[in-house]
Structure formats: C-alpha cells, structure tokens
Amino acid sequence: MSTTPAPATPITTLVRGAVRYLRSIMGADAYERYCEHLARRHPDQSPPSERDFWREHQDWQDRNPQGRCC
C-alpha cells in the first residue's frame, strides 16, 4: 500500500490557493504568521497560546482602531 499522496489536480490546487488567499485577507492566518515570525526573529522566546494571542490581538485592535467596519 503506497503512502505517497495522489498528485493534486488543477482544481484542488486552485481551491487550496483560494482558501489560503481568503484566510490571509481575513487575518485568520495571523497566529501562524506570528509564530513563524517569532521563530525567525526571536528563537529564544516561546509563542503564546493561540487563545492568548487572539485575546491580545483583539485588545490591540480595540486600542488602535483602524479602518474597520465594526
């Protein structure tokens, strides 16, 4: 039994790209990007939990309102 994944079809590739794009526009990938940044720039620091990250992120947005609808 082979454990290698089947090659992605063009439709699958397109859908995955669209999902990645939409997640980045909506900011849903902010925690992943922050963890990558932390690992690159500050390897001695451990990342906060995802829950703590989002809490701090929301608090920062409330303190620094920028062109948001809500």
Can you describe this structure?
It comes from Epidermidibacterium keratini. This is Putative selenoprotein. This protein is an all-alpha fold and 70 residues long. It has a domain at 28-64. The mean pLDDT is 88. The protein contains three helices and no strands.
Termini separation? 52 Å
pLDDT averaged over residues: 88
Rg from C-alpha positions?
17 Å
How would you sum up the major sheet? Answer: none
H/E series: HHH
Number of helices: 3
Give me a quick take on this structure.
The chain has about 70 residues and is mostly helical.
What labels would you give this structure?
70 residues, mainly alpha, 61% helix, Putative selenoprotein, Sel_put
